Amino acid sequence: MLSHPEFSRFYHFRAITRDASKPTAEKLREKGVEVVEADMGKPETLSAAVSGAYGVFSVTNYWESRDAAVEITQGKAVADAARAAGVSLFIWSSLPNVTKFSNGELTTVHHFDSKAEVEDYIRTLSFPSCVFIMTAFFMQNIWSPIIAPPKVDANLTYGQLDNGTVLFNFAWNPLDRIPYIDITDIGKYLAPALRDPVKYNNSRLTAATAYYSAKELVDLLSEVSGKNVVLPTEAEIPLLTDDPMKQMLARPSVLFTKWGYYGPTGEQDLEWTLAQMDERPKTSKQFLEDNGPWFQ
């Protein structure tokens, strides 16, 4: 948004952080962003942070606490503060309720369900306009620390075998289709709602560039890197976590295989969102080309 030719002139930006002395906060100030301190875990700090704001973009971090109840409490607290402050446009970073769309088959995707519960609550607050953006699997997490590829020789680059093959670090089913997003593109998905918040009131924006099968993704990695990237077996990739959700994401999952990341209507919903946008998001291939070299 800071570099957007339209919104950078129209809006004044305020960033909220728990520690305004951090280097990242200073970099934002250098770009003309107002930086204020508040803590979602301390509701009494939130009123001043959102006071006078036209719009609020609220996003929580489930992984910090790994506790759905904490995320729900934080999300509701920000929404309450924004409503009390008279905020006109409230944007919530949401996700679908997996327990519901899987008819109770999947009940441990807590970081989806918790955001969906906050979304349901926000809808009861009667903001003049509220919009829900649902981000896909981050391209930035393609090489994730959730699990680690084996390092078979101390002289080899992490994840590479001695025959030059590179093991992808998720043991996914080759045919599983997963949506991806470059997180730097999030503003592109929100642009229509910022231009016409009334039109998009209560809308869900499915923020992904496209669905790719696991095989398509490793083929792209092979093409861009020049390496032979392959999907590993579960035996080849040891998990570094006992978190059941991270285990689910790192292994073949009924979420991807049967239900889909966004549920049964995900691809249709993505098609609608992309049709609303003026600016095209990066493809996975563009992201990989822009963020190499890989496996050096």
UniProtKB/TrEMBL annotation:
Keyword Calcium recorded: no
Pfam families the UniProt entry points to: NmrA
Keyword Oxidoreductase: yes
GO molecular function (one): oxidoreductase activity
Top-rank taxon: Eukaryota
Occurrences of domain NmrA-like (ranges): 11-276
Chain segments annotated as coiled-coil in the UniProt record: none
Keywords from the named record: NADP, Oxidoreductase
GO CC aspect terms: nucleus
Protein family: Belongs to the NmrA-type oxidoreductase family.
PANTHER family with a match to the protein in the record: NITROGEN METABOLITE REPRESSION PROTEIN NMRA FAMILY MEMBER, NMRA-LIKE DOMAIN-CONTAINING PROTEIN
Name of this protein: NmrA-like domain-containing protein
Species assigned in the record: Talaromyces pinophilus
Lineage: Eukaryota, Fungi, Dikarya, Ascomycota, Pezizomycotina
